[in-house]
Amino acid sequence: MSQEEAVKSVFDTHALLYQEKYMDVKAYSEALSLFAENLPSPNPKIIDLACGPANLSFFFKKLVPKAQIHGCDFAPGMIKLAKTNVPDGNFEIADAFQFLEKHSKVDGIIAGFLIPYFSPTKTKSFLSVVKSSLDENGVLYLSAMEGAIEKSGTETPSSDKGKAIQTYYYPKEFLRLLLEEAGFSILYEKVQPFEKEPERKITDLIFVAQNK
Fold it and tell me: In angstroms, rounded to a whole number, what is the distance separating the alpha carbons of residues 188 and 62?
């Protein structure tokens, strides 16, 4: 089973459980608010990649009600939930790269915990595509799991102990460098404990960056 197939299987099977566990995103409200404040348009077009049940878009829409949300996810179950949670959004089954090819000159891109499933090489390519898809002064919200790259490896998600997924960790300095090399200006960065599963001792890494 490929990495893409494994990710799709886990998140599709456990979409409802994921929603119940992660719909509350107040831990990321500071970064999302800054993301909203720096968007170049009052009626922004926003892309939500690996949107899940649209938990981040649901919160964001409260900040910017006139935002046009376009989201994608591998998992059909996630897309079904996203359409319910943000009924005026446009959500479809697609991977991030395919989806970005269809959308250009957008005001903002949300990529919440997408790159933990991308190798550093793929993340570098991803950030280049993201930059090309953003309008001038467009803003990126990006979150990952902080840690030494050597910590990366096959892990079994807490929601499905029967499936193994290649998971990547990113040191803060390394991910900042990738963003800067891609042509982004860093507006915000934060490292914080992952509150939902304290027993796993995972650390969140969050960036808000602007297309220069």
Answer: 21
DSSP for 73-128, written as a single string: ES-HHHHHHHHHHSTTSEEEE--HHHHHHH--SEEEEEEET-GGGS-HHHHHHHHH
- The pTM of the whole model exceeds 0.85: yes
Within 8 A by CB and 6+ apart from 119, the residues are 168
More confident residue, 196 or 178: 178
Reading the block at residue 169, the tokens are 């960790």
Query: pLDDT by residue (tens digit) across 94-134?
Result: 999 999 999 999 999 999 999 999 999 999 999 999 999 99
How far is residue 24's CA from residue 59's CA, in Å, rounded to a whole number?
8
- Residues 206 and 172 sit within 8 Å (Cβ to Cβ): no
What rounded mean pLDDT belongs to the chain?
A: 93
Q: Which residues is 190 bridged to in the sheet?
A: 206
Contacts for 120-126 with beta carbons within 8 Å, 24 or more apart? 120/149, 120/168, 120/170, 120/174, 120/178, 123/168, 123/170, 123/175, 123/178, 124/178, 124/181, 124/182, 126/96, 126/97
Q: How many residues appear in the chain? A: 212
